[in-house]
Amino acid sequence: MSAKREFGRAVPEQVHILPELTFDMFEGQPTPEALGRTATPVDVLPELGFDMTGDEPAPSPLVIPGRVHNGVVVPEGGLALPEGAAVSIHFTP
Q: In terms of pTM, does the model score above 0.70?
């Protein structure tokens, strides 16, 4: 069985090299002497070192007060958590 492809075949063609093209941005006037030079000072910044081998600090817990209504924990203040968010509940009697 062979696939009949109408598209997707690469066919080598002859290469045509275009002639060099020159643009005169100064319209025949002489090039300014300072072209390409800058008077802007360069500040060399001190080396910045950092250590990526340490452990990442544990994220601080977000404390959201709430009450239990009909067996469901409801956050106070009308706060809605994203659907499927993982939570931990710490009961304070």
A: no
